[in-house]
Design brief:
Vcp-like ATPase, Chain A, domain 2, alpha+beta, single chain, 6-stranded mixed β-sheet, 14 strands, 22% strand, Barwin-like endoglucanases, 338 residues, 6 helices, rod-shaped, 4-stranded mixed β-sheet
Amino acid sequence: MLGLGRLAAQAAQGFFHNGPVASRFDEHYTCFPVTFASKEDLEKGNKILLPPSALDHLARLNITWPMLFELHNAEKGRHTCGGVQEFSAEEGTCYMPYWMMQNLLLKEGDIVRVTNTTLPKGRYVKLQPVSKEFLDISNPKAVLEASLRLYATLTVGDNIVIHYNQKKYEIEIVECRPSNSISIIETDVEVDFAPPKDYVEPSPPPTPSPVPSLDPFAGSNGGGEAPPAKKEDVLFGGTGVRLDGKPVKPKKNSPAPTGVSPNRPIAIPDDDDETDEEPWLKAIPGGVRTYNEHFEELKREGKIPGMVGKTSTGDPKAILPQGNFDLFSGSGHHLSHF
């Protein structure tokens, strides 16, 4: 009865003496993250949970929808705005997304002041990604539009969190119009982006160094040294190795005989060479026969079949065979006899 009498006295005082009547929602709550209330999905927005008594108070004040609130941390001088999702929290408790607690510099169990507010509909907002990783998203505009549907308000200085592809991207609110805090419920907002905070402009390409002059006399005129002459490539300029391990003796080249290509080296026999070990050095210039020191003598005696022409003596008959030797006097056989 005492409590009812006191309430009646306060009401009479306010009615007859025109005392102040509460016309604004202004309460203090102990704040916790929404994960403590098993509402992890609310981390993707800026809506809070209030107790049922807050709904009764707001109903008596004739607060219309959407209900928007301003949250204060008086000790740190920080504030932000947000909406309400449900009135299902325990009495004296307020649940809010953890990123909002970080913006307000609040810890679990700290006191937060909650007041109702009215915000103008936003027309323009400028966002700045905290990390350049946000630029890796293939379609950031579509991702941002889908994420901002979960937000009721935007406040300059807040770092909102965008969830996409199992990653979190922080975005700072740089500018809002027409005021520093705006409502984005059922409104079209022009969005502009600032470069990420950790973005670095690419350095300009290096200036190409001057090309040195190809003039051979540039060294004497300009004071520099002339470039060294380019070494000419030599065809088959390598060295050979014998399979038996013996050193390879250098070849002695001589002018090519008539009818032989001048580019083809001709080997001249050496009396000191061993014919058995290097028979290729005994080739007759311009021919294919093996060298023999009695070649001229055998040719005069007609002991080399098929040789036609003059000998070193100039007598064409000297090359004819002597005695009973007949050229091409062999006999033939049919394959059927075998």
